[in-house]
Amino acid sequence: MVVALDVRGREISPGSYVRYINTGTLGTVMDILEREGEIWVLLDNNLMYRPEKLEVIEHKKKDREIKEKIEDILEREEIKDIDTSIDACGAG
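Request: output the structure for the sequence above.
Response:
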């Protein structure tokens, strides 16, 4: 079993919620991989990161709730017919 440790020495495992310390990117760990002697952490954005550049953090319930509300609104939103008879040139 491959063991990955974050920037603070805490163990990273599949399902952990992490932050990439260089950009603040957040994500859920999908897998821990070893390639050519190096350990990599695969996040749900389909990118791999070095574990020492990640920080295990608490997944905030509020963030998840906001994301779910946005997804719900987008699913329910219907695009109405657009009136294309308007002659608009975009100037002024």
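The longest helix spans residues 61-76.
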